[in-house]
Amino acid sequence: MSFGASAFIGNQIGGRHGDRHPYRTLYTTVTLTAVAVIGLLLFSTHVVPTLALFALLGLVGLSSNPVLVSLAVRFGGDAPALAASLPTSVFNVGTAVGTAIAAAAVSSPLGTLAPLVVATVAALLIFLPLTALARNDHPARRAAAT
To answer: In the chain, where are the structural domains located?
Structure first.
């Protein structure tokens, strides 16, 4: 329940801040998502920290979605509807692939910690495409493209 309520609040906050500062918002949410997942990996056997970390994960874990959709629409040019559909499709593919990898890893020595290890790796890897996107979306490049 705390995850859902936090996700609702995070979507509102992320969307508002993302309108003004999309990359700052994305870096903040991605960093806090990584902190939450690493925290869950370290403290998953303790009830109170786990509940707090799930609330944090809800707050920041999905709050980047409206920002990413907004950026996709901006980059979509003459096809904003198609561009808006792509992030949602990628989110679903990521969920399916991540779940498959985590499920396969459960039978490894990581056992029940495998989903959190997979989530930690994914949370850290997201910095690579995010940094590439932020560097390629420099205001001077946007002005030259128009």
So the answer is: 2-145
